[in-house]
Amino acid sequence: MFCRMEHVIKLFNSWFWWENLWMPANCTWANYEDRNGLVFPKPHQLFIIIPYAFGMLAIRFFVERCFAAPLAHMLGIKNVKRIKPQPNSTLETFFKECTKRPSQTEIRGLAKKCNWTVHLVEKWFKRRRNLEIPTLYKKFQEACWRFTFYMTSFVAGVIFLHDKPWLYDIWQIWVNYPFQSLLVSQYWYYMLEMSFYLSLLLTLGFDTKRKDFKAHMIHHFAALGLMFCSWSANYVRVGTLVMFIHDSADIWLEAAKMFNYAHWENTCSVLFVIFSIVFFITRMILLPFWIMRATIYYPVYYTQTVVLAYIIFNGQLLILQGLHLYWGYLVFRILKKFLFVKTVKDERSDEEEEDSFSDNDEKCTKNGSKNGGESSHPLLNNNN
Question: Dihedral sign, CA of 95, 97, 100, 102?
Fold first, then answer.
């Protein structure tokens, strides 16, 4: 059984790394051996991003605890603890299996079944929903960490790319391809970005979940796939450009989120407008009409053999661009509301609901209700 499994793995490995899938005609992996001062990217080097990703998580923990937490307190963001609802198996089952937001009729039925008041059932569902919504304090910490990374990565990109000819002349990404030597700066730029996105995948289940959770998953996998493919096929020059233009917009978004959570509305609005401008320039203009033109059309001038890596790489770029169109639509909607309503709100996030009344009110309402049903409290019809 073990020998058969080993044979399958070797067969898959030989097919996956077939030269015709990754490199131009008359080129083999032997040509990618380091020689005469030339250093080439090698797929096995990417295994290092696994421990690096855990190192990135350690850095994140340090930034969130030692930098983001004090900053949150300075901005008046308190670490509020969620109040857990009273244990109730009937309501918990209904919450998980039916709906998190029952109708008024369903609430009345549940109140009779539990021998509770309608208000108490409403409060239970509000508190139960709030348990699944991260606090502003947690959101601020996450945004602060991402801002720190994107700013660091963007500055690194400026340092690494400012003197590179392909930053100013996009044709240069294909000059001497595939025999382009890997630079030390390119190696660390890739390790930095891939470790970060892998760490985001590792914490998807713990980070703030938004309505575009699936889109974020696709984005992280597509980003890692793009970097893996560009590294293996030595599309490193264009890969660094893609990473650079992405980081340039994300900085402003995370900064806007931080000030939004701190309720600095004017600062948040200015930062969000800047983000919108940078987003549309980089992801709606530069990426499709500058970089993707260079990756889809320009290669025909350098080779007449289209390899599978070319198709995979551009396919992932198209997926990424599709996500940009989706997020561009959301950004446009938020920007439209800001211009006409003067508020900026992240439509992907749920908001915490306030409790209808205090714990003392809860005891009085529960003990004083004999019918287990309706009440004349003015919040009866409040079913947010």
Answer: negative
